[in-house]
Amino acid sequence: MVKMILRSSPAKDPKKDSPLRSQGVIKNPSAELCHFTDPEIDRIRHCFPAEAIFKFFDSSLKKDCVSDTWVAFPATPFLIGFSYLFPAFTQSFFALTGMCYIQAMPMMWRVLYSLENIIEQEGIEIGMSELAELYNLVSHGSHCFLSKHKPGQPHPILKTIKNDTHWKNRFFFVRRDSIPDGKDLPKKWTTHARI
Known about the structure:
By secondary structure, this protein is α+β, with helices and mostly antiparallel strands. It has helices at residues 38-44, 76-80, 88-97, 106-122, 128-134; strands spanning 21-22, 65-66, 70-74, 135-139, 145-149, 171-175. β4 and β5 (145-149) form a beta hairpin.
């Protein structure tokens, strides 16, 4: 017998379901369409609260789509071990920078995950001022950001640089009111993020 994971279907009330619309900030929109399918979403579903409602796969959606109803998530943090609600240090980082989760490139997620593990396992207190001493935020276009170690300094966390193929297409949408703090998450991409 095959066990099937069911997802709650989105509400049909048009007053509650604002449509997703592109912000037009992506340089090459056709190269950044969604490829993260429903079966892939089902494999990371356990990383979210049981009440989370996921939008069904739609290959026409771009990662810069925003809505009052839906929030975009990249697949990377959940594929490397994060669960939502993100730990305090990671939440502080996004609150300070004003970035949407989808704007963080895979390297940044690996740095944040590594720092969260150091904080948890070693009991070392690391705050945003320490992070700002180690890294700059850099954008290589389309207002997505990575963490680049400060010039002239050794790389503080090794093995976070990796060529992630197709990361730009691996994202999905979750209904804001179905997750903790979902209504407070940014509804527009930031164009200038700083630590």
